[in-house]
Amino acid sequence: MHLRRRRQVTTAGLAVCAVALAACSSSSSSSSSSTSAGSSSTASASSNASLSGTLNGSGSTFQTVFQQSAIAAFKSVDPGITVNYGSGGSGKGRTDLASGVTNYAG
Predict the structure, then answer these.
(1) Of 9, 29, 57, 64, which is most buried, counting CB atoms within 10 Å of its CB?
(2) Burial of 91 (0-12, 13-18, 19+ CB in 10 A)
């Protein structure tokens, strides 16, 4: 039961990251005609630029190519955050996540 809860939290976290990444990419390519909307998107972009840190993941070798492309896409949006993914197998990913070695598992 505990593993199921962690998997749900991990899945939810990845979904939030995907939505945030999609929102960032769509807002950066659109232009705003309103001054207040333009200033809020500029403030949002500048606050994102100041983010920094490292996320470590581990898991399935099958999804390594996807993870690498997702990490590259995320890096283009926010270069201050480093994301690492070790492909040692899904069992290792679960073990690493459960022991707190990684922030997410694939």
Answers:
(1) 57
(2) exposed
